[in-house]
Amino acid sequence: MSVTESPGIYVPPAPTRRAAPAGRVRLVPAHARGRGLPRWLRRTSGPVALVALWHIASVTGVLPAEVLAGPATVVSSAARLIATGELQQAIVVSLGRAMAGLALGGTVGVLLALASGLTRLGEDLVDAPMQMLRTVPNVALIPLLIIWFGIGEAPKIALIALATAFPLYLNVYAGIRGVDQTLIEAGRTLGLGRAGLVRHVVLPGALPNALVGLRYSLGIAWLALVFGEQINATAGVGYLMANAREFFQTDVIVVCLVVYAILGLAVDMVVRTLERIFLAWRPSFTGA
């Protein structure tokens, strides 16, 4: 008698296998599914459509050349300025001013944020004056800057430094004070002293805010540069724009505006690259 036939002995039936499906269906995450046009094409379609509308309005006479030159005229003027070397020289001068002002203002803003964010005494001494000064319009300080520094390069760089210091101060200060207290307690549990906590916990935790502040400061640097280069400038993109304004050359003005926009986009891409490098540990939402 087999085991299965023995009385009083229960043998469970052998497990049955499910039939394998004829074809496997691969699940694709939602963010990896195709969405028609490539992303780079979708991102460039907006500016291309805007330029096309601008060209059509210029050709049909809806937008007179006296009001705004057409894209063809602007491209021709840009080629002429590049051929003579004026545009390259102006870009180098303006970029140097912006970076010098950002380096000065950013250094001061970060140091003040560290003093205010890491110590209560620093907060009491620094934060209130910074909150008052940041509400003062930077353009209103131009007469004082001219009196203090003359009409050379110093007031231009000082104006950019003042404009860029406050965004970095606010964001770095908020980043330091926004570090999770649980991480601080974990660091103390692991035996980190005050210096170790600042180096390994507080500063890395404040880095995302610091990079956001850097992006804001870079954008404001170009705005301050436009005003700064109106102070008796003899070179730079703002100087080209001021000369074009005197002779009603809207094509040159548009070229200068496009240069400002391209420079701003270029430095913003640099900051985005820094974010990808230094914040690779942080998962982020990339859009639905």
Automatic annotation (TrEMBL):
<comment type="similarity">
    <text>Belongs to the binding-protein-dependent transport system permease family.</text>
</comment>
<feature type="transmembrane region" description="Helical">
    <location>
        <begin position="90"/>
        <end position="114"/>
    </location>
</feature>
<dbReference type="GO" id="GO:0005886">
    <property type="term" value="C:plasma membrane"/>
</dbReference>
<feature type="transmembrane region" description="Helical">
    <location>
        <begin position="220"/>
        <end position="240"/>
    </location>
</feature>
<keyword id="KW-1133">Transmembrane helix</keyword>
<keyword id="KW-0472">Membrane</keyword>
<dbReference type="InterPro" id="IPR000515">
    <property type="entry name" value="MetI-like"/>
</dbReference>
<comment type="function">
    <text>Probably part of an ABC transporter complex. Probably responsible for the translocation of the substrate across the membrane.</text>
</comment>
<keyword id="KW-0813">Transport</keyword>
<feature type="transmembrane region" description="Helical">
    <location>
        <begin position="157"/>
        <end position="176"/>
    </location>
</feature>
<keyword id="KW-0812">Transmembrane</keyword>
<dbReference type="InterPro" id="IPR035906">
    <property type="entry name" value="MetI-like_sf"/>
</dbReference>
<feature type="domain" description="ABC transmembrane type-1">
    <location>
        <begin position="87"/>
        <end position="271"/>
    </location>
</feature>
<feature type="transmembrane region" description="Helical">
    <location>
        <begin position="252"/>
        <end position="271"/>
    </location>
</feature>
<dbReference type="GO" id="GO:0042918">
    <property type="term" value="P:alkanesulfonate transmembrane transport"/>
</dbReference>
<dbReference type="Pfam" id="PF00528">
    <property type="entry name" value="BPD_transp_1"/>
</dbReference>
<feature type="transmembrane region" description="Helical">
    <location>
        <begin position="135"/>
        <end position="151"/>
    </location>
</feature>
<protein>
    <submittedName>
        <fullName>ABC transporter permease subunit</fullName>
    </submittedName>
</protein>
<keyword id="KW-1003">Cell membrane</keyword>
